[in-house]
Design a protein that fits this description.
The complex is a heterodimer. By secondary structure, chain A is α+β, with helices and mostly antiparallel strands. Chain A has twelve helices and nine strands. In chain B, 73% of the residues lie in helices and 2% in strands. In chain B, strand 1 and strand 2 form a beta hairpin. Chain B is globular and about 70 Å long. The chains are: A alpha+beta, B mainly alpha. The interface between A and B is large, with 48 and 44 residues.
Chain lengths: 272, 391
């Protein structure tokens, strides 16, 4: 079962790279040749003052433009609702049991190493989108004793095998972004609307955002990206593809990453 | 030799029944937790490890503490420890049994525990912890049993066993070092991210483990007519005092680094532990009483153990000092250390943790099992000692 699942995920990931699927995905990885040729010149990364490793292969990432998110109130809520529907994320009434994939939090909570002292009202009044950063060097993957959480080589997605996870929660202690949730009890009674396209989880396993790997495999965009379509609030694509829309945004705008000083190399960028 | 556990005074059976009662309660609580999930505990999304993992961490130390008897006896040929080295080895067995039980109690999917072996992940510290803990358990069972069997037959232990005895010494150090590495290698958890965690763990282990052995010796003297010898006890207390002082020194260093550098992330957890942490107008201070009890008990017990009253004359004060120190380091490592690592959360919120009754039931059940194991093993060891003396 486990092996089949892993195999499935690998094939799913590979099909993303190969561009099998809808044009939207072909666009994401439209020029693999250029992506690999870009590998010769290490891109100096200004975020956090680090030089990130030379890009290799596909590394999916995301830019969240909070200016555009704000322009249309309710935009982020739509994205969150789409995520919840896509992944059968249970809604517990209490914070103790909470399962969160994509959620919102104030600036000071999201960017804990940025000062909120005399920050503009725009920043203090806005709720920021929070999700797994799909780090290039993920501490959760390092900590996992069973490889139940792993980096998909072909996409850079930090994925989970719910059937292998033993529920030790080492990854939750290791994640510096609080992106992981644990099923403290059977989540099924708390799923509001069951979506047959994605499995629900059982008690005793950890879960988190998967960058909609299952949708990518079908040639669709991630649920949150689709929900914000046309607004430019979320741009998704290959960080290593110099011609991607994502890179165009990154080249143009000043972006920040969460806790970049920890060396995890997050793949999620923010424009505040 | 196992037959020695089957004969005993009424007090022995009453003690076993007493422990058995708590084990039964623990088992019943575990069945509830197994069926419902870990939501039966006080743990939450923010404080994702609780009493189970903190007990595990403390007990790894108790297990490692046994080496403070093995090392002087086998490496430095300190003969006085000859009678009690076996007590250290058997205590280590019981402590590791408890550690493994706490780990199992903490797993969300305990039936998948073997995935750690089936999918070995050399990048995970838990992988190494499983290796060294099981290795140390095996070494102590092997060494303890072979050496005790030789004693029973009144022959010298076979030469090959010394290889395993010497091997158990680095293993003892490694179990607590690797356990410290579970914590101190995690980015973003400032309180744990400190190179002094492993030495601090070892220091408190080398005080708490032997302190429990001294208490065990005092109890065995009364109930089983086993005299460890004044000189051995006195040397053990010297070891305990030095180790305890080292631990307090290391705690002090953590304070210096936090407060002199004045980096908020380095201070938060210490503030939360000792003074209460203010956040959005609310002061979070659940653990403050425990931590000051730790400080007072630790210094009080060190002072008491250093006086001639406890060391030379009075068994009661000796026992009191050791019990105080054991409790102090349990408060420090068995409560404060693990829980404070989760404060504040990665999103700078504060969630406090209070264990549930069911969780406490399981915890007490595991401790009772450990005491049962150590009682049975000590019964065997003392039985053999008496048998040899009679010959």
């Amino acid at each position: 079962m486990d092996k089949q699942r892993r195999k499935f995920l690998k094939i799913a990931g590979a099909s993303v790279v190969a561009g099998i699927g809808a044009p939207a995905i072909v666009k994401l990885t439209s020029s693999p040749a250029l992506a690999s040729s870009a590998g010769h010149a290490p891109a100096a990364d200004v975020h956090g003052g680090h030089v990130e490793e030379a890009p290799k292969g596909v590394r999916l990432g995301m830019v969240i433009d909070m200016r555009k998110m704000e322009e249309q109130p309710g935009q982020l809520d739509n994205a969150i609702a789409a995520c919840i529907n896509a992944h059968n994320v249970p809604q517990f009434p209490d914070s103790k049991n909470e399962i969160k994939w994509l959620w919102k939090a104030p600036f000071e909570n999201v960017f804990t190493d940025h000062s909120g002292y005399h920050a503009s009202n725009k920043i203090t009044d806005t709720d920021f989108a929070v999700l797994c950063n799909h780090c290039d060097d993920p501490p959760c993957v390092r900590a996992c004793p069973t490889q139940a959480t792993f980096k998909v080589k072909s996409t850079g997605i930090v994925a989970m095998d719910f059937h292998r996870c033993i529920g030790c929660r080492f990854c939750m202690a290791a994640c510096p972004y609080g992106a992981r949730s644990f099923n403290w009890q059977d989540p099924r009674p708390y799923i509001k609307k069951y979506n047959k396209e994605f499995p629900s989880r059982m008690k005793g396993v950890v879960e988190k955002c998967n960058f909609c790997a299952e949708r990518l495999a079908l040639g669709k965009e991630p649920a949150c990206v689709e929900a914000c379509k046309g607004t430019g609030a979320i741009t998704f694509g290959d960080l290593n593809d110099a011609k991607s829309e994502l890179r165009a945004v990154l080249d143009k705008e000043f972006t920040i990453q969460r806790k970049s000083t920890l060396g995890t190399k997050p793949s999620v960028f923010y424009i505040v | 030799m196992i037959e020695k556990t089957l004969k005993g005074k009424p007090a022995y059976w009453i003690w076993l029944a007493f422990l058995g009662m708590f084990m039964a309660i623990g088992a019943a609580c575990y069945v509830r937790q197994y069926n419902f999930g870990l939501g039966m505990t006080g743990m939450s999304r923010d404080v994702s490890w609780g009493l189970y993992i903190s007990q595990f961490t403390f007990l790894v130390g108790v297990a490692a503490g046994g080496v403070m008897l093995v090392l002087p006896y086998y490496i430095h040929n300190y003969k006085e420890f000859g009678r009690i080295t076996i007590l250290g080895e058997f205590l280590a067995i019981a402590a590791i049994v408890m550690c493994l039980m706490f780990i199992m109690a903490d797993l969300g999917q305990p039936m998948r525990a073997l995935n750690v072996v089936l999918h070995p992940s050399p990048n995970s510290m838990l992988f190494y912890d499983a290796i060294v803990l099981n290795g140390y358990l095996f070494l102590n069972i092997l060494c303890g049993w072979v050496i005790l069997t030789a004693e029973k037959k009144q022959v010298k232990p076979p030469k090959w066993i010394y290889f395993f005895v010497y091997l158990s010494i680095p293993f003892a150090v490694s179990i607590h070092t690797v356990t410290a590495m579970l914590y101190c290698g995690l980015p973003g958890r400032h309180f744990w991210l400190s190179a002094i965690i492993a030495p601090r763990f070892l220091a408190s282990a080398f005080a708490a483990g032997p302190a429990l052995i001294v208490i065990a010796c005092l109890v065995l003297k009364r109930v089983a007519g086993f005299d460890a010898g004044r000189k051995a006890m006195d040397k053990l207390v010297t070891i305990i005092i030095y180790a305890a002082i080292l631990n307090m020194f290391f705690v002090g260093l953590e304070f210096f680094v936090g407060y002199y550098s004045n980096i908020p992330g380095h201070k938060h957890a210490l503030e939360y532990l000792f003074f209460g942490l203010e956040h959005h107008g609310h002061v979070y201070n659940n653990l403050v009483p425990f931590m000051w009890a730790f400080v007072i008990l630790a210094f009080g017990s060190i002072a008491l153990l250093a006086t001639p009253l406890a060391r030379k004359k009075n068994d009661f004060f000796l026992g009191l000092g050791c019990a105080g120190l054991f409790l102090a380091f349990w408060l420090d490592k068995g409560i404060g250390f693990v829980l404070a690592g989760f404060v504040p959360t990665p999103l700078h919120e504060i969630t406090e943790y209070i264990p549930t009754a069911n969780e406490l039931g399981i915890t007490i059940g595991v401790w009772a099992t450990g005491f049962l194991v150590v009682t049975l093993l000590y019964k065997i060891a003392i039985g053999v000692e008496h048998e040899v003396e009679e010959c």
